[in-house]
TrEMBL record:
The keyword Oxidoreductase applies. Keywords: Oxidoreductase. InterPro entries: Flavodoxin_fold, Flavoprotein-like_sf, NAD(P)H_dehydrogenase_qn. Belongs to the NAD(P)H dehydrogenase (quinone) family. It comes from the Bacteria. The keyword Oxidoreductase applies. It is an enzyme of class 1 (oxidoreductase). This is NAD(P)H oxidoreductase. Its EC number is 1.6.99.-. Residues 1-174 form the Flavodoxin-like fold domain. PANTHER family: NAD P H OXIDOREDUCTASE-RELATED, NAD(P)H DEHYDROGENASE [QUINONE] 1 ISOFORM 1.
Amino acid sequence: MKALLVVAHPRPDSLTWQVAARVRDHLLAAGDVEVDVLDLHVEGFDPRMTPEDEPDWADRDKPYSADVRAHMARISAADLQVVVFPVWWYGPPAILKGWIDRVWNHGFAYGRSQPRLAGKRVRWIGLAGESRETFAEHGLDDVLDRLLRVGVSNHCGVTDASVTVLHSTLAGEDHVRGLLDGVTDVVGPVR
């Protein structure tokens, strides 16, 4: 089995990266799992849309840039994607949104009668400083879920997708330890 672990945080000492490391270790502990770690910052991914990668609604076979095609190949090779990111302004950071815009593109991720990503699994894991109660009060958990599970994953044929927000990441060491300990439950069974 192959897993693609996508991380969208600029600091390797961040809690986001600690969560990603737990996910990686969980996947590797399952045995016979190849984990491809895609660090959007270290790889210098440019989130800006360019004409070369802009969707062509009249040509679903448009050849996108070499960088985007390389990312598409990594997604294609993975049975499971786990995307770990900070929640900034109640949404994914710009680098992750740009990765979705450029890579989960027309003709590759959607726009075909047989979705290329059907049968794959995606786990979106966001880390938010705000409490679960604050998110719920404003309906923001639902917004993030609809964006990533429905608007991105389901739209691209991925029916086994989930969005989990790890809340109150600034609440102290004991709380953070509990979040880290529960990450493997979020990913679920590897097989």
